[in-house]
Amino acid sequence: MLPSKAKEIFNKEKNEFFSDVANTLIENYIVKSNLVALKVLFYLSKGNVKSTGKNKNLYTFKIDTLVMSDFCGVNKKTLQRNIKKMTETSITIVDEQNKTIEYVSVVPRAKFIDGTNIIELGMFEDIYLMCKKAVNRYTNINLTNLMKLKNKHSIRLIAILEKISQYDKHVGKRVTYTLEELNGIFGTNYPRISEIERKILKLVQTELDTLSPKSFIYQVNYEKKPKSTGRPRAVSVTIDLIIKESENPKKEKNRAFLEWVKKIREKHINEVLLYHPEVEANLRVSSKGLLYWDNGHELKASKAKEFWKWMFENQGELTIKF
Questions:
Q1: Cβ neighbours around 192 below 10 Å, total
Q2: Rounded distance, CA 174 to CA 186, Å?
Q3: What is the Cα–Cα distance from 184 to 79, expressed in whole angstroms?
Q4: Are 127 and 201 contained in the same domain?
Q5: Helix (H, G, I), strand (E, B) or coil at 46
Q6: What is the pLDDT of residues 174-189, one digit of tens each?
Q7: Where among 213, 246, 279 does a domain terminate?
Q8: Domain-embedded: residue 120
Q9: Strands 274-276 and 281-285: what pairing?
Q10: Integer Rg of the chain from CA
Q11: Lowest mean per-residue pLDDT among 158-172, 240-254, 280-294
Q12: Which of 67, 102, 136 is the last residue before a domain boundary?
């Protein structure tokens, strides 16, 4: 359970990752070191497995454990063991308006079918919808990369980085945490920041640098003792968001546009791209990569740029098929 100070940090900024459920799924799984169960939750919520039906508000999922084990990067026994843990994990739903507190099992039903590789999982409708809503907020890492994560703390850092990225433009994309706060965030009890740096931050940084478009750099802050000759004491860590180039929507779209134009120029030379009724001619691309009208009319460079852009944004209107 998070110390009160760490809870306050997450709640005071209205971090929506954790607002739907008082005692969050992320919190449960990370503190209980159950990254595999978290992967199962993402796997279900991202639509990899469709529900086979709903009975009394209980969604049923029929899962091939061999397929899921391979996707999650674990063996079948590990998957089954962690799914069993999921049936023992509950979340707390606080309804302040009606003054109620409800404890609900995340996966109330798990049926292992002997002689097969099939597991049937059951989730209550409201819990399943909350799971989907929470999982879908993790937009900065795709499901395949998430399944490759080995460190349970990476998920918590991803949540922090997503929170930082949503700060206003005039606010620095950084946060600073004390030792107590870091222990609360990661569910640990390390006596020194150097241990958190060595056992968590460096490992997670390496993993996110490889698998996530959002990563981070950090700086250990030391206590200032002007008159002291002893070694300064580490008192906090500042985490700064790093966004890779692919996270920039404009650059990403421009790259996709250039790749699309390149493909047209290579694979559709002299083919009809579209017919223009006002020009009464077909638009084609020459072997030199230039757009031209097949009735002999000249197509100026500025107008060609406009047509390339229009065609990219309206690919369904083109004569060629991809």
A1: 11
A2: 18
A3: 27
A4: no
A5: coil
A6: 899 999 999 988 888 9
A7: 246
A8: yes
A9: antiparallel
A10: 26
A11: 240-254
A12: 136
34 & 78 share domain = yes
Are 106 and 96 in contact, with CB atoms under 8 Å apart? no
Residue 291 lies in a domain: yes
CATH of residue 203 = 1.10.10.10
Q: How far apart are CA 163 and CA 214, in angstroms?
A: 11
Q: Domain of 59?
A: 18-136
Domain count, the chain: 3
Secondary element (H or E) of residue 43: helix 35-45
DSSP of 78-116 = HHHHHHHHHHT-EEEEEETTTTEEEEEESS-EEEE-TTS
Note the pLDDT of residue 195: 95
Helix (H, G, I), strand (E, B) or coil at 153: helix
Are 117 and 26 within one domain? yes
Answer whether 243's CB lies under 8 Å from 253's CB.
no
By CB neighbour count within 10 A (0-12 exposed, 13-18 middle, 19+ buried), where does 51 fall? middle
User: What is residue 140's predicted lDDT score, i.e. its pLDDT?
Assistant: 55
For residue 243, report the phi and psi dihedrals to the nearest 5 degrees: -110, 125
> How far apart are the C-alpha atoms of 101 and 96, rounded to whole Å?
8
| Domain shared by 25 and 69, yes or no | yes
With a cut of 50, say whether residue 8 has pLDDT above it: no
Note whether 61 and 112 are same-domain residues: yes
Both 74 and 116 in a single domain? yes
- Reported confidence tier of residue 4, pLDDT bands at 50, 70, 90: very low
* Strands annotated E in the chain: 51-55, 58-64, 90-95, 100-105, 109-112, 118-124, 174-178, 214-222, 234-243, 274-276, 281-285, 291-293
**With contact defined as beta carbons under 8 Å apart, do 174 and 240 qualify?**
yes
| Mean pLDDT for all residues in the chain | 77
Q: Which two tokens stand for residue 200?
A: 């968590």
Task: Clarify whether residues 198 and 258 are in a common domain.
Answer: no
Mean pLDDT computed over 265-291: 87
pLDDT higher than threshold 50 for residue 242: yes
